[in-house]
Amino acid sequence: MAMRKLAVCSAFFLVPLLSCNIFSRFANPTGPLPTTIPILVSPSSSRSSTSTQILVATFTPSATTQPIADTPTLSTPSAGITPGPTLSPFPTILPLACLPSPAGSEFGQVKWIQDGSTIMVDIQGQLTVVRYLGIQSPDNLPNIQYMGPPAATQNASLVQGQIVQLVQDGLPRDQNGQLLRYVVLYNTQTFVNYEMLRLGLAQTAPNSSRLACYDTFIQIQDQARMAEMGLWAPSPTLFPSATLRPTRTPAATITSTPTSAFSPTPSPSSTSPTTTGGSPQPSSTQTLLPGQPTYTPTPTGVQIINIFYRGTGTNESDEYVEIKNFGPSSVNMLNWWLSAETESTYFTFGQLTLSSGQTCRIYTNQSSGTNWCGNFASSAPVWDNTNDCGELNNPNDEVISSYCYP
Question: Which of 198, 265, 282, 336 has the fewest CB within 10 Å, making it most exposed?
């Protein structure tokens, strides 16, 4: 009896002690995890004994068991999410790969630019108009179209004064007698036709599908369109398409130096004829001969030196006005303009730098000729065969030079 009481008392005191020991271990997360956990089993009601059994369960911690972090980490679900589409880059284009054999191609130096796809090239001493094969750019002369001036300016920055290789493909000339060529810069191997398309400053020419570079041109044009370059930019501001000559300033506001050194008031004894076009009359010591220009006998700057007014070509297309730079330095002729006295026909210069001592001719409707630097693009004669006057104006609409002929 005494032994049974002792066992009950021992169990009574042992259970709380073991329970405290177990919870003290789990309350300290930094301590080592136990390898055995005592499990208390209450006496079964079917047993007559009142003793409590203590069973021990054994487990082995996993090698990958990690302590619980203080801050929970959000995991990204790997299923049920479809990634967005990835845009493929433009295909690589090798611009020069489409060029036909360069055998027989010509070399020359670019003298000046008419627009974004037309240049004047010195080929073995002969000035020749060259149009870029397979492309067309907006007009800059005689009518300004949208992106015409930027195209001409970019073209000038690429080729002005450069040595170029001219590669033929198909017909050698267009209906106006201009050379049709692929143009490649000799020093940098830049394919100029391709470059103008890439910048959105030209379009693929119609009826050019048989050209060797047609597919290449279409690809790079599509890229320029997708990138909204140049002509493909949204909501363009249109340039005027018909008005090219600036509005004339009233004569009272013109501040340029008079184009004649003669006295505006002739002496009483003067018997010399009076020039036309409102030019000053010569003094008594001078005689104005037919075709003599009205500028000073010692000219300076850019002056008109001749008007060939009686042409022999169809509709006198070979008429021309000849100008010369008498100054000591080059003159940028961009936006200078030339007109007949009636002002019904006029010509505006594009990207042209006239060197000191250089002359150039503006024809009525020819695309080439001696010292060619442009034409009026007129299907009818410009200059009257009896008498007329021509005027050269700077971009400020100031009359720089005038020339009259009887």
Answer: 265
35 within 8 A of 60, measured Cβ to Cβ: yes
pTM for this predicted structure: 0.48
Residue 305 has pLDDT above 80, yes or no: yes
User: Mean pLDDT, the chain, as a whole number?
Assistant: 73
Per the DSSP assignment, residues forming a β-bridge with 322 are 306, 361
Q: Is 124 exposed, middle or buried (0-12, 13-18, 19+ CB in 10 A)?
A: exposed
Q: Is the pLDDT of residue 244 over 60?
A: no
pLDDT band of 343, cuts 50, 70, 90:
low
| Long-range CB contact pairs, 144-149, < 8 A, 24+ | 144/239, 144/240, 144/241, 144/243, 144/244, 145/239, 145/241, 146/231, 146/236, 146/237, 146/238, 146/239, 147/116, 147/201, 147/230, 147/231, 147/236, 147/239, 148/115, 148/116, 148/239, 149/239
Q: Tokens 């302590």 correspond to what residue?
A: 67
Backbone angles phi, psi at 107, to 5 degrees: -125, 145
